[in-house]
Design a protein that fits this description.
Elements (H helix, E strand, L loop, with lengths): L1 H20 L8 H10 L1 H33 L6 H18 L3 H17 L13
Length: 130
């Protein structure tokens, strides 16, 4: 459980830094985005790397929360800690939303997609078949 709390802190910090380091271009113009990434490569690359780190950290927590809610809905033993951490992740997105709405929206969509892809149905075993 302590590892999941560490992942939550890493995800929140990297999400905060990614949102604050990525440039805000409204309206979003591809030419301005490319020129901004060329003129400020450190901010762009650091923001992109932190976005990926936060996606992997928080996406796994969201996936574990989805599984815990699904198991508790079926009457099985669900981990309430996973549900609480998933709710804290969602609250973290609301805090990040005030810093930059489109950066947080991209971050949230990537985390949600990774979280949904990271879990498999119960009893499914990968046998190396394509």
């Amino acid at each position: 459980m302590i590892w999941k709390v560490i992942r939550l802190v890493i995800g929140l910090v990297s999400g905060y830094l990614a949102v604050s380091w990525m440039s805000t271009l409204i309206p979003l113009d591809p030419d301005e985005l490319v020129s901004e990434s060329i003129l400020n490569p450190f901010n762009f690359l650091a923001g992109t790397m932190l976005l990926a780190i936060g996606m992997f950290s928080m996406g796994g927590l969201i996936g574990a929360g989805i599984i815990a809610v699904k198991n508790s809905g079926k009457g099985r033993e669900g981990s309430s800690g996973d549900i609480i951490l998933a709710v804290i992740c969602l609250c973290g997105f609301f805090v990040l939303f005030s810093l930059g709405w489109w950066q947080t929206a991209i971050f949230f969509v990537f985390c949600l997609l990774y979280g949904m892809m990271s879990f498999s149905p119960m009893g499914y075993k990968d046998k190396g078949q394509i």
